[in-house]
Amino acid sequence: MENIFDSSYYWITKRGLQCIGQWPFRSSKEKRILRCLTFFTITSFLTPTITKCMTSLDDTDVIIESIFIIGLIGLCFTNFFNWIMMEDNMIRLLLTIERDWKNLRDQRDIELLQQHSERGRKLSVVFATFVLVGLLLCFCTPAIPKILDFFHPLNETRPRIFLSPTEYFIDQEKYYIYILFHAYISASIYTSSIVFFENFFGICVNHACGKFEILKAHLESLHLDGTILIEETSLADFYFIKNRIKICSDLQTQTLQFVDCLESSCCGALLLTVGINIGLIVVAGTVAMIKNSEPSESLRTGCIGVDLIFHLFYSSWLGHVLVVQNERVLDAVYQSEWYRFSNRSQLMLLPIMMRSLKPCQLTAGKLYIMSMQGFGAAMRTVISFFTLLNSTR
């Protein structure tokens, strides 16, 4: 069997993580070099942004814009360093995915896992496209003055637009192209890093959903041997049902362990990610209001704000899908016509039912449940803070 991570389901995410030195199966030397290069490039942009913030303490608007960019980089570094600290867990997750694919024998099970993996791939592409299109629109804003000068010239040249407030202690007008190019490179790297980490999270969630779907299919067909209904009237029937229930129980245990590993790996990072996201959405709205007299700046900040909302929505929706998929396992137990089984077989189903009653959910630091209800609560918090912040200006 070929390396499953070279398949279309995982190839893009694998290549992206390799580029920033976070693919765990590369050599230690390659990972260190690429991680240092990524860190240096992003930090080289973060430093002048912080400097600009510190040298403009009397300008509230510049401070807010600077904090906005610092927050975006913080979002990247949260996942970047979490991956390094939790690398052993990440390896365990990836090896589990690889093992699951190798151990599948039934064609129906393979097709179910393929369906969920393909869904994960499509969602990853949609998420990456949405975020990167927003980034591209931001990159276009510095060109707006040049375009306006060409089509609607004034008596003087319109002022140049920088991608973000920075302080290099040089003539920024003279070195405008170099500063802009540096901003483009850095923004591309930290934005792409956020996308790759989120896509890995999505891969794991969709893999778990695929395994829950396989479990559901096995439970619904417990009472069938092909198309023949089993009444469990003989000892052979009992052992047949017993073996099937054992397979289901083992599959559920493995899936829940996989989700627990994902939860322990991402719990702290998700807390910071959700907190930073909420704060940045508020700041994005505030900056857009500050720059309402400058359409290009409002557009740039608005695009980033929409990307942040979509990021929070996507993470929450993935958690919600996992909860729903686990709940369907309990429904599948009832679909198995358990009442046809002997008392001994019915008792064997109880542990599966009890584990399905416990919500299988991902949390952000045990404080925020990754679900659509959590997303709704987060957006209400955003609106409250946005109203408060704008009332103090």
Automatic annotation (TrEMBL):
Record keyword Transmembrane helix present: yes
- A Pfam family this protein belongs to? 7tm_6
Q: How does it sit in the membrane?
A: Multi-pass membrane protein
Which GO cellular component terms, listed alphabetically, does the Swiss-Prot or TrEMBL entry include? plasma membrane
What's a single GO MF annotation on this record? olfactory receptor activity
Q: Where is this protein localized, as stated in its record?
A: Cell membrane
- The residue ranges crossing the membrane are 33-50, 62-84, 123-144, 175-197, 269-290, 367-389
Entry keyword set: Cell membrane, Membrane, Olfaction, Receptor, Sensory transduction, Transducer, Transmembrane, Transmembrane helix
List the residue ranges forming a coiled coil, or say none: none
GO biological process, any: signal transduction
Q: What family is this?
A: Belongs to the insect chemoreceptor superfamily. Heteromeric odorant receptor channel (TC 1.A.69) family.
What is this protein called in UniProt? Answer: Odorant receptor
- To which species is this protein native? Diachasma alloeum
